[in-house]
Each structure stands twice: as C-alpha cells, then as structure tokens.
Amino acid sequence: MKRKHLVAIILILVIAFLVIAGIYLAGSNIQVLDPKGPIALKERNLIYVALALSLIVVLPVYGLTIAFVIRYREGNKKAKYSPNLHGNWAAETIWWLIPSTIIAVLAVIAWNSSHSLDPYKPIASVNKPINIQVIAEDWKWLFIYPKENIASVNYFQFPVNVPLNFNITADAPMNSFWIPQLGGQIYAMPGMDTQLHLMATSKGSYYGSSANISGTGFAGMNFTAQASSLSSYNEWIKTVKNTGIKLNPSSYYNLARPSSYNPISYYSSVSNGLFLSVINKYMTPIQNNNSNNSSGNNNNNNNMNMNGMSM
Amino acid sequence: MPEIVAKTPNFITDIDSENKTIFGFWVYIMTDCVLFASLFATYAVLHNNTFGGPSGSQIFSLPYILTETIILLTSSFTCGLGILSARNKHKNKVLFWFGVTFLLGLAFLLMELNDFHHLAVIGDSWRRSGFLSAFFTLVGTHGAHITVGLLWMLTMLIRIWQVGLSKANVRRLTLLSIFWHFLDLIWIFIFTIVYLFGVMKV
Amino acid sequence: MLDFANLLGKLHGNIFPSDIMTIGAALSMVGIGLLIVIYLTISKRWHWLFREWLTSVDHKKIGIMYIIVAIVMLIRGGADALLLRTQQATSVGSSHGIVSANTFQQIFSAHGTIMIFFAAMGLMFGLINLVLPLLIGARDVAFPFLNLTGFWLFAAGMILVNLSLGVGEFSAAGWLAYPPLSELRYSPGVGVDYWIWSLQIAGIGSLFSGINFLSTIVKMRARGMNLMKMPMFVWSVLGSMLLVLFAFPILTATLSLLFLDRTLGMHFFTASGGGNAMMYVNLIWAWGHPEVYILILPAFGVFSEVVATFSKKRLFGYTTMVWAIAAITILSFSVWLHHFFTMGAGADVNGFFGIMTMVIAIPTGVKLFNWLATMFRGRISLKLPMYWFLGFVALFTVGGVAGVVMAVPPADFQLHNSLFLVAHFHTMIVGGVLFGYFAGINYWFPKFTGFKLNERIGRYAFWCWVIGFLLAFVPLYILGLMGATRRIDHYSASLGWQPLFIVAGIGAGIIGLGVVLTLAQIVYSIWKRKDNLDYSGDPWDGRTLEWSIPSPAPFYNFAVVPEVDSIDAYWEQKKSASAKTRQAKVVYEDIVMPKNAPESVIIGMFAIGLGFGFVWHIWALVVVCFIGIIVTVIIRTTSEDPHEYVLKASVIEKIEKDALLRSKAHA
Q: Which of C347, C361, C490 sits opposite A219 (nearest CB)?
C-alpha cells in the first residue's frame, strides 16, 4: 500500500509542477518561438517541422521500451521467452528504412532551406532596403548607417517592413550578431565582412546579444533593435543628427577601448569609409621600419625577441 | 587429478613480440601521417597569406632544395642497405651503412637549419606572415622528426657496437628504418607541395 | 644573462589567485592532498602504493587508477558546475552574482575541459583497460609499458589543470579556446597556456592508448575469436580507437600551432599578420566531433553487453550492429562543420554538412532498435546496469532529437551557442556517455573486486541523477529558445530568465546529491562487502569470457588461454556439456608476465615539469625535463632486458584451485 501512495504523491507533485511551469511559460517571452519577422518565422517553422518528424521515431521508442520492460520482466512467467531470437531481416529492414526515409525528407528540407534562408540572401520587398554596418567592439555594438551618415552604440532603429542589409565585422575577437525575434545569427570576425538580411513585420523593441564569447565584458554586449513606424524612424534619425558628436578616427579610437555595459550613445556624423578601414586594419601590414604589425595588434611581431627564449 | 605440465615459457614469444610491435609502430606512423596532413592543410590555407612579406617563389632556391632532397633520398637507400646487412647478421656492415645514413641525415638537417637561419636573419622569419609561419612549422616539424631519427640512429649505433645484433636490436632497426623511409616520403610531399608548387606559384 | 628573474620566466609577481572562491578551492585541494600524504606516511604504505599500483603494468590496476582519477575530476567539474549555476541564478539586474566575470569564464572553461578530457576520457580508458583483454581472452594488452605511460601522461595533464587553480590562472576562453580570443593579445596571461599543455600532454597519452588498444584487438584475440565473434563492446572500442588515432593528431597539431602563435609570434590564427582564425575553428572541430563519438561508442558497447546479459538473450542483429558502428565511425569525420554553421560558409557547404549530420542519426537509431529487439521476448532482470540503460533511452533520445533539429542549418542559426545547445550536448554526454560508463562500472565491478555494488543506494543515486538532470537541463532548453546565449555571467531582469535559472540550480544540486550517493554506493559496498561477495566469478549469469575466470580476476587473467568458436562464447560453453569435462583436464603452463615499470612514473613527472615550464616560460625547466624524458625513454628502449618474469605453473595452479574451492563451498 505504501508504495502506491508514494507513487500517487509523486504523480500529483509532478503534475502540479508541470501546470505551474506551463502557466509560467505561457506568459513568458520565448523569443525564438515568437518571431517578429519573416526570417525568424521560417526558422521557427523549421524547428517545428524537424521536431515533428523526429517524434515519428521517438514516440514508438518510448512506447516499446515501456511495454517491453513491463511485459518481459523476469517476474512475468506468462510472457514468451525466445532466447535464440537474435535476427529478423524484416524487422531490421523496417527500422533502417523508416528513419532513413524521415532523414531523406528532412535532408531535402535542410538543403532547400539552407539556400532560401542563406544569411547572404537579400529579402525581396517593394521597399528599398536600409544598409547598416555593424562593428563588434570590446564589449559593445556599433551601428553605422552609411547613407544617413549617423552611428549609434547598443541601439539602432528602423521602420517595419523594410529589409535591413547588415554588413558585419569586428574590432575585437570573434563575436556573433543575434536578434532572436528577427532571425538567426552570424559571426562577426575581425578582418572579415559577413552579411545578414533581416526584416521586422511588427513594431517593437527587440533584444540582441553577442552569441560568442569575446572576453571579460561580453555578457554586457546587449543591444536593442527598435522596429518603428517610418515617421518615428525619421524622427530618430533627426535626433541622432542633433547630438553633434562626430565619429572620426580619434573618437572611434576612444570608443574602441575596452568597456562594457555601455549606455546607448549617438554620433551625428561618421567619417567616410570608417567600416572599411576597420576591416583593412587587420588585412594590411603597416610599413614600419622594423615591425610588421598593424595598429592595435602589437603583440609579438617586432624583432625584439620578447617572448622567445631569453638566456 | 589435473595434470600439471611445466613447459617452456610461452606467450609472449619472440616472434609474437616482433609481429605485434611492428604492427603497433605502423599504427603510430599512421597517426604521424594525420599530424602532417593537418600541417599540410594549414599550409594550403595560409600559403597565400604573405601579408606584405615574401612569397615562396621569392625565398625558395630549387637547386638548394634539390641537393637536400638527393641527400635524403640517398640516406634512405643506405638505410635499406643497412637493413639488408642486419638480416645477414653483418654487424660491421650495419654500423657502416647506418653510419653513412646518419651523416647524410645530418647533412640534410644542417642544410635545412642553414636555410632557416638565413631567412630569419634577413627578417623573413616565422613572425613575418601566416605563410611563413606555416612554412617554417611544416618543414620544421619534418626537421624535428629527422632530428629524432638521427638521435635514434646514434643510439642504435652505440648499442649495436656494444651489444651486437641481438633480436631486439634488429627489431629496433626495422622500426627505425620504417620511420626513416616514412620521413623520406613526407619530404617528397613537402618538396612538391611547398617548394615546387611555391616556385611555380600554384 | 643568467639572472634569476629571467630563470623563472613569467613565474613572479602576482601568481596566486585573489578571489575567495578560487583560494578556497585551491586550499582544499592542497589540504586533501596533504591528508593523503600524511596517511600514507603514517601507515607506511608508500612502498606498497608504488609497487602494487603506481608502477604496475597490470591493465586492471591501470584501469582502476584511471577511474579513480576520473571520479575525482568528475567531482571537481561538478563543483565548478554548481558554482556556474549559482552565479547564473543570482547574477541578475543590479546583482553581479558570487564571482567576477573573469572568474566565471575560467570556471566554465575549466568545467568543460575537465569533464571531457579527464572525467569522460578517464572513465572510458579506465573501463576499456579493465575489461578489454578479458573480453577477448587475452592475458594483457599489446604494450603494457605504453599503457602505463599513457596513464601517467593523462595524470600529468590532470595535475597541470589543477595546478592552474593555485598557481596562475586558467583559460577564460571556453573549453575549445577559439582565437583571436585565445591569442596572446586578448589572453596575455598563462591561462590559455595551461589549457594548451594539459591537453597536449593528456592527448599524447590518449594516442598511446589508441595504439595500444587497437593493437590488442587486432593481435591478441583468443584462438577462434575471429572479428565477427567478438563481443560488441570490443567492436565499439575498435571504432572508438580508430577515431582516436585519426582525430587526436589533429588536436596535437592545432594545440601546437596555437602555442607557436602565443610563444614564438607566429601568425596561424592571429586576427592580423596573415592569420586565419577560421582555420582553427575547422581544425579543432575536425578533432572535436570525432572526440564525442570516441566517448559514446564504448558506452554503446557497454549497453550491448548489458542489455543482452540482463535480458538473458543474445544481442539482436549482431551484423547490423557492427555495420552501424562502422558507419558511425566513418561518418563522424564528415560532420564537423555543424559546429559552426553560423560562421558563413555558404548554403552549399552548410547544406552538405547538415545532411551528413542527419545521416549519422540513422545508425545510432538502428542500434537503439536492436537493443529493444534484444529485450523483446527476453527475461529482463532489472538490476542497476539496466536502470542506467533505461535512463539512457529516456534522455539520449531527447538529446538526439535536439541534435536533429539543430542539424537543419537555418534552424541552427537561432539555436547556435544558446543554452539549447548546452542542454543538447549535456543530454548526450550525461545521458549517453556517463550513464553508459556507470552501467559498465556497476556491471563489471564484481569481476575486479569479488563483490557487487549495493543495489539500493545505487538506485537512489540513479534517480537523483535522472531527476536532477531533468530539472537542471529542461529549463536550459527553454532558456535557449528564450534567446539566452551560453557563457553569460549576468543578464537583465526584464528578460524573465531568472526563475528558470533557479530551477536549473536546484537540479544541479540534485545531481550533486547523485554524485554523493554514487560515491556512497562505492564506499558502502566496500565497507559491507562481506554481504555481497561473489564466489562464482559469474554473478550475473554472463555470456562473455570475462565471467569464466574467478573474481577478483587473477593478475594473469586466464590460467589457460581459451579457445572460442561462437559469439557469446562463455554462454555457449556453459550450455554445452564440455564445460564439465574440461574442468578435469586442465594443463597449467608457465606464463611470461611483464614487470613493473617505474619509468612511466618518471616520464609522467618530467611531463608535468615540461608543461609547467612551457606555461611559465621557464626554459631551463623545459630543457631539463625534455632531456629527462628522452634519457628515460632511451634507457628503457635500448635495454636488452625484456622487462619480464616467468610466472610458474605451480603458482597459477594454486590460485586457480583456491578459487575453485571457494566457489564450490559457497555454491
């Protein structure tokens, strides 16, 4: 009797726990499952499809395991015992074929979606896209609008239903540019230029972060992607232009120094080709007389043997 | 009553030991292959990253490398002659041929070190660019293996001179020769992929 | 030129930890070490320890040493995990938790490194060492000296990791130390160098074990045991060791290249100078993906043995299972890019690797079905090893589904590096690897000790592990979907993540309880061993050769090398009549056994010095230890002494007869 009571109590507790958890989760912002843009929407649906296809295999596995353990336990003398049953081609064929078929279907989906959801693929739209250059710094995000000639830190705004063309680099170790409610991430790497194409279909403030560790302050590398109406967006541009702070090599140098949890800040103009110069900084040697490093990258490549054997 | 029959010690007999050890050594050689493959792959990715410094065609001298190659290939030949002598139990011939192999290997190594030294002195060391890092490391790793092989050879020469061509020593010479020929094979790849392709700007 | 400041390299100034957590942890380690030293001195057991254990080339003793080190590191890694969970449950909004960001990053880097390289690999090599020769009817592994040396290199790596806790710091760049973060510019301290050298040294130990076990399987099977009659565990070890031999050299090369960047100013992976950080990512995962299959294959092998034995039925579909292992082994080299779909390789490349990743799920699923088919119409005995198998079915399936979802590249764009990923791989490693090795330890324990592990405490431990795991990691799957990235030491309150982190913290605590109970199970079983003694050598009515010898297994394994003519050789022998007649006509012969190898310990000690010297740039120490290793190796390998002794037939006969008498008396 005691065992039955124990099982009943455990079952009640588990169900209560699950109910509470369900209520909590229903009110939570499960961002990846709550897309606000076409890319995130398609990516979410892929998750669902893959999950559903997998369940075709998983549910029978669970069912059979429970059934076999109960039926063929050694206390149950009624069950048939076939100690020499160790092969059956029909059974084997079935459980090779069914998973293979499911994987084949999923493979086609994976191949097609890899192409249709390629981060480098522009989003088709009647509206003209906005180009935004993104630089991952230690430990904040810099957003440059080359056409509007403004820049901002840890915040950027854009109108809904307008495609965003991101060019992304880093002046820092490898980072990853991720706005879960708008779409998947791509790495931000020094000396490289990666692309991402996103769009928002609803207004809102969307959470963004760096999804690859880049040093001590990386947890503070959060930013906000604000999708607004076109008029609010134009207002915002005006506000930024009124700050009067220029982003030039000197102010950029100060910005690039390590800092984390940076508050939002704006720059009303950006010197020409800043983004490109940040990339090129890593790709071209500076013509010094005895060193071959580029600015800011001075570790160990001058002729003074600082890190080798010193006898 | 079970019979107790005392016999000569069996397993691990000499034959089994040799067979097992040579097999294990081939397995090790396979892992060394993978190591070199990783270095070759890295070289392939980085060989154009000259970062303003020299490219292969600017620093490689084919006649010099050809000389190194002939020296190393000859040492493989003399090594083979050494093994034949070992099978025929001619201790003095073994010492002679492996001695020649050692000297040839040493000459190869010294030529390589000279080349490296020259490059470092004129400022084109491994710090200069990704290409040079990959070059020095790939060729240098081969050189490090050659050094180990030479040390091994020297040790074998001393031991065989002291103790003679015991079964164990002949087995060890066999392993050494496998190692030496393997290094020769790797050198052929280096010669082709690094130097030849580098000069031809492939 | 020879001033003392330079002689000590970078080992000066601020080398000891400054935060209370690290200091406490380091001091506890030192304290425990001191207690052990004092105990050994007072009870005068140093000589015993050296002779019976540290220099022993008996594969069973080496196996036990591996497992002890692995369990110690499991505890260390688990303590790290508790700290991580506590930090993430409390560091919200204006609070920044219990440790600084940098300390947090060192803790998770250490946690991952320790768990994979020392806990999981240690349990694996330990278990393989214990049983592989017995399963194939061999008296030893192919190269006993290499075996012990491999263990001491593993131990040297372990010591270096733990040294970093008290002297210097550990890497803060994650368990795989991607550049440019791990390059000198962004990680100027010694942390990454500790990471490099402990792994480099332990990795060479792994290579030695790979050579050894592969040669053992190929060359030392009992007569009549052709490949298709080997126990499935042996097949799984064969696959795993082939992976070791092809994958670990890549790790050796990659660690060396990172070291060269940091120490000699090279430009393999630097952001500038012509380096290519993406090359590192490719190389490290070309090793890293096979590594996880290295870990899981032997666990699958354990399950094959356990399910067959405890269903009293032959393993279903032997041939298919072999092909599945072969498929998994080969395919595991074709999927590595799925670890960085988001690095921008392009749709074709991503698509190819995504498909290959899904394909490898097929043979894995097939194995699961074959185990179920083994249970079908069997007589299932729910002993602890079967509990661990059932726990594996429950958890591994979930983790596998998560893996298939992430194998679709655009889906992975939203899940990469999130806590969903973290939950996935923990499900595979805890639910798959760890549960498999726990099943193996429970299953084979009586063979090496002569008594079984306590079932009741074992069940309590099992439930703590399963329930703790679910509480700790289901919230993480959800958090990943909520946009939580991994490795963060702080987050904003408005995200609503804290309740889930708190539940995860409770779950981690319950897993901790599970660890305690696992240890308690072992300790209690040893204390109360007289209640659980097994005199028959075959407590589970087993099917394979290891159960045909007495328990605890004699140091020479088999008095008479068996001859085999079927799968499940011992089961067939038991069922046939010949077993009884064979007993009467045993012919004992002298056996050649290998002697102890103190050289392995010496090499291990020099390896520690070598690693320490490289880390702190103490070049004199590096040179001395390097020469020390070379001299030791030369002395050992040029000696005409075969390092063996002859074990007389009369000694063997006595041991065997005693065991037979004991088992008859307690039948």
A: C490
- Find tokens 């180009």 and name the residue: A131
C-alpha separations of C648 from B5, B9, C40, C407 in Å = 11, 9, 32, 59
| A139, A215 contact by CB (below 8 A) | yes
More reliable by pLDDT, C323 or A14: C323
Please report residues of A whose CB lies closer than 8 A to that of B132. Answer: none
Nearest CA to B37 out of C327, C283, C240 is that of C283
Which pLDDT belongs to residue C2? 53
- List chains touching A (3+ CB pairs under 8 A): B, C
Q: Can you tell me whether residue C509 is helix, strand or coil?
A: helix
Q: Which of A140, A20, B11, B93 is nearest to C642 (CA)?
A: B11
Whether residue A303 has pLDDT greater than 60: no
**pLDDT band of A13, cuts 50, 70, 90:** confident
Given a cut of 90, whether residue C579 has pLDDT beyond it is: no
Q: Which residues of B touch A (CB under 8 A)?
A: 51-53, 123, 127-129
B51 vs A contacts (CB less than 8 Å): 285, 292
Please determine, for the modelled complex, whether the ipTM score is greater than 0.90.
Answer: yes
Residues of B in contact with C586 (CB under 8 A): 2
Tokens 């990471």 -> residue: C195
Q: How many CA atoms lie within 13 A of C136 on its CB side?
A: 31
CA dihedral C68, C74, C75, C77 (to 10 degrees): 140
Contact across the interface for A194 and C414, Cβ inside 8 Å: no
- Measured between beta carbons, the chain A residues lying within 8 angstroms of C348 are 114-115
User: Is A288 at the interface with chain B, CB within 8 A?
Assistant: no
Query: Is C340 exposed, middle or buried, given 0-12, 13-18 or 19+ CB atoms closer than 10 A?
Result: buried
Which residues have CB under 8 Å from A231's CB, separation 6+? Answer: none
Contact A122, A129 (CB under 8 A): yes
The label of the residue with tokens 């490093």 reads A293
CB C160 within 8 A of CB C197: yes
Distance (Å, whole) CA A267 – CA C501: 37
Residue C399 in tokens: 């983790």
Collect all residues of chain B within an 8 Å Cβ-Cβ radius of residue A284: 52
Kindly identify which residue of chain C lies nearest to residue A70, measuring between CA atoms. C380
CA C491 to chain centre: 33
- Contact status, residue C206 vs residue C248, Cβ threshold 8 Å: yes
Asked whether the beta carbons of C406 and C424 are under 8 A apart, the reply is yes
Average pLDDT over residues C127-135: 97
Cβ-defined contact of B10 to C591 (cutoff 8 Å): yes
Query: What is the pairing mode between strands C644-647 and C591-594?
Result: antiparallel
Separation of alpha carbons B34 and B32, rounded Å = 5
Partnered with residue A186 across adjacent β-strands are A177
Q: What is the mean pLDDT of residues C415-443?
A: 98
The C-alpha torsion from A239 through A244 and A249 to A252, rounded to 10°, is -50
Number of neighbours of residue C638 by Cβ within 10 angstroms: 18
Helix, coil or strand: residue C485: strand
Q: Which residues of chain A form beta strands (DSSP E)?
A: 130-136, 141-145, 150-153, 155-159, 164-170, 175-179, 183-188, 194-198, 204-210, 223-228, 246-247, 265-267, 269-270
Q: Do B51 and C585 touch (CB under 8 A)?
A: no
**Does C283 contact B38 at a Cβ distance shorter than 8 Å?**
yes
Angle between helices C384-406 and C361-375 (to 10 degrees): 150
Please compute the mean of the pLDDT values over residues C162-169 and round it to a whole number.
Answer: 95
From C8, which residue of chain A is nearest by alpha-carbon distance? Answer: A310
Cα separation, B78 vs B98, whole angstroms = 7
